[in-house]
Design brief:
- By secondary structure, the protein is α+β, with helices and mostly antiparallel strands.
- It contains seven helices and nine strands; from the N terminus they run αααβββαββαβααβββ.
- Helix 1 packs antiparallel against helix 2.
- It is elongated.
């Protein structure tokens, strides 16, 4: 409703309400002389209109509520019904000597970085943190990404995996992994020197870790953002 329309509505509504109130007030004296009834009616009507004018003026000055921007064209189906993809989140952490922390699992060939898939509505870096803590006992600040890796559909739907930088562990953190009791699907924790990764990992996993280590050496960190703000 435009400001002019709102002002017109208020201008018509206030006298009508005041006239109704005046008529109700005059009912007890409807059988009396006409002059007192007119005086009471006019007094109540005038009082209602004068009292309502500030409200009408204030209402006229109020801006209309903001409206959401309308979609000018139908959204493409790929946005409203995106294809099924898996999102994996892994952590690269090094011990004080530069060896890579890897885990052995019951469902993968060779060793792999700790991590796993995010649940629905779970923040990506928190998914990596949760899996890393569950599998290794370490709680690491994951604020940057070293590599992203795409895997086409094979036995499982296509996937995009993110490798987060977990930092260099202290001796105390390294000892935490030794005493940690991981879930049943984790059969072992290992620190492997980069020169021996190819002997212990699946080729795809090995290539992923190698690229992440190369990005780390070049200082090519990507900050992980949440709506444009660095993740905590």
């Amino acid at each position: 409703m435009s400001p002019a329309s709102r002002l017109l509505a208020v201008t018509l509504t206030i006298p009508a309400l005041s006239a109704g109130a005046a008529a109700l007030a005059c009912r007890p004296i409807r059988d009396g002389p006409l002059t007192p009834r007119l005086l009471v009616f006019g007094l109540i009507l005038t009082t209602g209109v004068v009292a309502g004018l500030p409200t009408a003026y204030t209402w006229r000055l109020q801006p209309p509520p903001p409206q959401e921007q309308a979609v000018l064209y139908p959204l493409p189906d790929i946005l409203t019904n995106p294809p099924r993809r898996r999102l994996g989140h892994q952590t690269l952490a090094l011990d004080p000597d530069g060896a890579v922390l890897l885990v052995a699992t019951t469902h993968q060939n060779g060793l792999t970085l700790p991590g796993g898939s995010a649940e629905r509505n779970e923040l990506p870096h928190l998914a990596a943190r949760r899996h890393t803590e569950t599998e290794t006992g370490l709680v690491l600040p994951l604020r940057s990404i070293l590599a992203t890796d795409y895997t086409d559909a094979r036995l499982l739907p296509e996937a995009i995996d993110f490798v987060y930088w977990g930092g260099r562990l202290t001796r105390a953190q390294q000892a935490t992994t030794t005493h940690h009791r991981p879930p049943h699907h984790i059969t072992g924790l290992h620190f492997i020197h980069p020169d021996h990764l190819a002997d212990t990992m699946d080729p795809d996993q090995h290539h992923r870790v190698t690229q992440a280590l190369d990005a780390l050496a070049r200082g090519a960190h990507l900050p992980f953002l949440l709506r444009g703000i660095p993740a905590e």
